[in-house]
């Protein structure tokens, strides 16, 4: 993808930027010898390598050739054998389930072996006696050496660390506006990313693309294509639990706020396909005492084609409501930005209980100064019984580019990790296409966070703590989401494959959904003080 | 499976033959107590049994029999959204299996969740009416184990 072009005869520029002096003319020979060494090690029983069990770390990168010679001469000569086709893809497929991608960047960065450029020699595990699969199993990844014709450095773990290091170095170069260095690094990232497997490869590729766009000023076109975005979001909805979690927890809060009320009005800032509302309508239909009369106002962006998308969605919801005997009224508003709305437009009626709902919409307002304050002002004028908000739990809106980059790298790595567990290969029900679409959906967000600026940068995620202070200043106080919401959310997550990895946490009455130890989205509910 | 009592000539005058197919209320009562696999098997016996197993009341019983009497209006809503048989196959069974629960451990939370997912599926079908691709919001439930 990003071809590597070392200087002829001079010092290899990729290693040069990382601080090493290695002649590029030596590289091919060294790599070939490394390969031979790996093959030699792979064909030995564990006992035969006891002399290598001690650390043999090379300290002078430019003298690798002679060190390797001495290593190789310690082994008997090995017979040639065929390489399988495309070892990277095969090994990455088999590795998916085993590779716990360590994304704790703090410790990884400390652990970068500064002077030992080449992999530590480790005795392979005892099973390693077959001559056929020339995989040198480390504890983290299975890697197969490529065919002798194209020598490549293939230690996945080392490259993983180097990849993260390079990504960070590139981002730093961009922040310092040292674009020449950034350019060199971004090419290297692409090259390193290929040696990774699964989530790490995809994340690195998306971030590399976003960095490249920023460096070359090729900003992404069509970020605002709402129909395409909606389609991607549907796939994301189907593949993993984040949106379902958002809908179910927000609905539970709204349901509780509507208890005992006979005329209710929901204002949805994030209408899209209206997937949140069927479940609420059904819950209202079955509540003790019967359903209220239900009014829905949906806000959406202008559509690029002729269809009135908002009206279509409203019509389908009306059909559903009619089937389950819930009195239903719908209105759709097209708006470029939520800040264009004002309270009078909604025509709130006497005796009507209002709920305002926003799923992943509010952070976009932070791109324009004053917009979020205006919107919260309008919301408070509507005097809602409840305001339900779901947002990404991350700070991708820091003033320094490098901070945003680091945060989002960590965040999206975790998110992609969780996507891996949703399957998408073999006999999985979730198709590869769904998973890929979900990745594209997230990739667009990555691109926006990294490559865009100013009013174009709309993915300005902020943490729950930050939102708390904004809502506090606008006159709102938190409503605790009850245990019902928590139970439903936990149950929902248990239904998803990889359910063990997902965690629901309660945080001062707000619910957070995360992957292992990292919270990823937060649902909160608010009412006027 | 006629419960055709085999009798010898002496007692024949006193006993009457009993055909289960003539006593559908009894048959339905029996079928109501089966699990879904057995209902599936029963459906293969004859056309009458096949038709009876499609009776939604049977599946309603299967869905909620361990729970206290179902809430008001559940039946109308479920019927409108596609019926109990569909609810069971699409939502109840996968949810129970995935959560590793036995039917006597159902609570209202499982019921609520199943009904919500069922409703989302119905809504998706409204959108996709006539389209080639089936609705997939419940696809995460289909994955093995």
UniProtKB/TrEMBL annotation, chain A:
Subcellular location: Nucleus
Ranges where the record places region Disordered: 116-137
Record-level GO BP terms: gibberellic acid mediated signaling pathway
Gene Ontology cellular-component terms listed: nucleus
Region (VHIID): 233-298
Entry similarity comment: Belongs to the GRAS family. DELLA subfamily.
The protein's name: DELLA protein
């Amino acid at each position: 993808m990003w071809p590597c072009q070392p200087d002829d005869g001079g010092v290899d520029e990729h290693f040069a930027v990382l601080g090493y002096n290695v002649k590029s003319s030596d590289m091919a020979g060294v790599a070939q010898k490394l390969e031979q060494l790996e093959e030699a090690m792979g064909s030995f029983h564990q006992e035969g390598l006891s002399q290598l069990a001690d650390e043999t770390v090379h300290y002078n990168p430019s003298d690798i050739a002679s060190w390797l010679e001495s290593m190789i001469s310690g082994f008997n000569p090995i017979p040639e054998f065929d390489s399988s086709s495309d070892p990277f893809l095969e090994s990455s497929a088999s590795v998916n389930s085993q590779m716990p991608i360590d994304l704790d960047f703090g410790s990884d960065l400390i652990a970068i072996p500064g002077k030992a450029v080449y992999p530590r020699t480790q005795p392979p595990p005892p099973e390693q006696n077959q001559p056929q699969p020339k995989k040198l199993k480390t504890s983290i990844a299975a890697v197969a050496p490529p065919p002798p014709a194209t020598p490549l450095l293939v230690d996945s773990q080392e490259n993983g660390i180097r990849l993260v290091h390079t990504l960070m170095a590139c981002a730093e170069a961009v922040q310092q506006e040292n674009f020449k260095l950034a350019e060199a690094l971004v090419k290297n990232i692409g090259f390193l990313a290929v040696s990774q497997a699964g989530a790490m490869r995809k994340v690195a590729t998306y971030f590399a693309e976003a960095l490249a766009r920023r460096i070359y000023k090729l900003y992404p076109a069509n970020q605002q294509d709402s129909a395409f975005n909606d389609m991607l979001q549907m796939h994301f909805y189907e593949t993993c639990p984040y949106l379902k979690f958002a809908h179910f927890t927000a609905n539970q809060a709204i349901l509780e706020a509507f208890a005992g009320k006979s005329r209710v009005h929901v204002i949805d800032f994030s209408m899209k396909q209206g997937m949140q509302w069927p479940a609420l309508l059904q819950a209202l239909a079955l509540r003790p005492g019967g359903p209220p009369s239900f009014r829905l106002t949906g806000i959406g962006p202008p559509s690029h084609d002729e269809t009135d998308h908002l009206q279509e969605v409203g019509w389908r919801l009306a059909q559903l409501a009619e089937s389950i005997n819930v009195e239903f009224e719908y209105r759709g508003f097209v708006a470029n930005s939520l800040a264009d709305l004002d309270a009078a437009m909604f025509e709130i009626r006497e005796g009507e209980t209002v709920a305002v709902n926003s799923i992943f919409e509010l952070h976009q307002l932070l791109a324009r100064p004053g917009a979020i304050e205006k919107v919260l002002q309008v919301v408070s004028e509507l005097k809602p019984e409840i305001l339900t908000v779901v947002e990404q739990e991350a700070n991708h809106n820091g003033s320094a580019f490098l901070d945003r980059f680091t945060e989002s790298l960590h965040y999206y790595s975790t998110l992609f990790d969780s996507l891996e567990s949703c399957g998408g290969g073999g006999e999985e029900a979730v198709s590869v296409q769904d998973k890929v679409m979900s990745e594209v959906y997230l990739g667009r967000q990555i691109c926006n966070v990294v490559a865009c600026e100013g009013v174009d940068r709309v993915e300005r995620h902020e943490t729950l703590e930050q939102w708390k202070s904004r809502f506090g200043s606008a006159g709102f106080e938190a409503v605790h989401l009850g245990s019902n919401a928590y139970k439903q959310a936990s149950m929902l997550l248990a239904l998803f494959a990889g359910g063990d990895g997902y965690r629901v946490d309660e945080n001062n009455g707000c619910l957070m959904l995360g992957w292992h130890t990292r919270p990823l989205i937060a649902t909160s509910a608010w009412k006027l003080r | 499976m006629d419960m055709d009592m085999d009798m010898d000539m002496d007692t024949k005058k006193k006993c009457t033959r009993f055909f289960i197919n003539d006593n559908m209320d009894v048959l339905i009562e029996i079928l109501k107590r089966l699990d879904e696999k057995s209902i599936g098997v029963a459906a293969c016996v004859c056309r009458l049994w096949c038709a009876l197993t499609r009776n939604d009341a049977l599946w309603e019983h299967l869905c909620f029999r361990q729970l206290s009497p179902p809430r008001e209006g559940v039946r109308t809503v479920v019927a409108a959204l596609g019926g109990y048989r569909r609810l069971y196959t699409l939502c109840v069974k996968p949810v129970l299996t995935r959560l590793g629960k036995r039917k006597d451990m159902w609570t209202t939370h499982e019921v609520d969740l199943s009904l919500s997912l069922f409703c989302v599926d119905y809504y998706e079908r409204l959108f996709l009416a006539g389209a080639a691709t089936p609705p997939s919001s419940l696809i995460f439930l289909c994955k093995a184990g």
